[in-house]
Fold:
Amino acid sequence: MQVTGNIAFLPGSEAPPWPLATGQGTVGLTDASGDTLIVFVDRTTGIDASAMANGDLYQITAPMANFNGLLELKPRFQADLVENPGNPFPLVENIVPTPWTPVQMQSVTVSAAISDNGTVTRAELFYRDRGGAGFSVVTMVNDGFGNYSGTIPGTAAAGLEYYIEAEDETGQITSVPGDAPLSTLGVAVGTTSIVEIQSVMTPGTDNSALLGTLVNVEGVVTVAPGEIQTSGFSNYVIGESAGGRWSGILVFEGSGANIFLRGDRVRISGTVGEFAGSTEVLPQSGASIELLSFGNPLPPVPVLNTTRIDTTEAYESVIVAAPRAAVADTVFAGAEWWLQSAGADSAVYVDPAPGVSHVAVLAEEMYVTGLLDTRFGRNELVPRNDSDLVLAGLVAADPTPVARGARFERIAPNPFNPTTKISFVTPREGLTQLAIFDTRGRQVRTLVSGRIEAGSHEEIWDGRDASGSFVGSGVYYARLRFETESLSVEKLTLVK
Structure:
């Protein structure tokens, strides 16, 4: 729907329920009749609302959503917010730095889509080293289709800060962020280790000393999206390959734009945050996360007794294992339970992820592997699926469960033109990816990416790439991944 009105209150101190990121959160819009409508600007959309001021006239086009009984508009794109709709300001959107995670002395090209109902007379990119005194400026070049770009020289500093200004023929100027240069966009330069983020704390607190800092961080996925939360969020955990103390961190990426599997190695441009006692990385957007490789070994799993799991912070967001332990108490009819290992002074609370179906019984003995979650004032052990639980009576020693993986059944016709049917089997419900690659290893098309049911499946590849264009004749590869348990590749030949 489309609503026009004046801004009644802004995100942050004026808006319930709590301050969010700069220029994002809950906004009030009052129309001519005096009615006020809630507008929620989600941080994952990349919309910048920091130029808003009380009394500004806006036309907002967005779907209506019901959040806990409260009706609210949820704009999806920068273009959904139009200031002064009679003669709108220039629109600046889809801002992308390339690369998101530069190394020292690597230049960064910033691109943006800039448009106006009249003429864009000026588009400039202002930049400086992080914390620098003044800004340099470069003119952004239009490719003739409204896509503007400018290049920032490489630096040895810890990061770059930048903002964009666009002006139309009437002298109206749009800045992004809206309160620039007080606020800026940015990229970090180089990589910060997870250990450094987690182990160096602000004195007198358990908060990371890098809280609020934009960093580039790299690690191996140890808890995949969907394993600890089944909503649209891409919450997952990454760890240092070497494992050990301070080696894991939660990633909160609310757009749900990425599907990763355990063993994927990723690099993220994001801000260090704290939520309910847990340190996390908040990616700048779904696009600021790069998949570097897949099928990497998972970090080693330390074995800790339940007292240590219950009291340590050094293993926050690390996959740990409890030795043989007994259920000391059950909660919610055994859906959650307290677990205590022999000789331990205290028990640890076990709060299984949605993929765990086991119901615990008092005094039952088991081996448990899972994520050490330190949120909400206590440590919890979170097994990811039933494979993380092994009943002690069923094994002679600490086991390493092995599950059968997915496999191709048939690809026909092959060679083919223009389509082929790819048949495959998955042993149970789980995260599955079926993708097509060329001979240089470039991903051409993704046919399946997400959780699918157990059983036989069929997908058709019509010889097109992700953009819908037909690919050339030649050899291609179908790659089937299931959880972290299997990786199968089959050759396809497209003839024309």
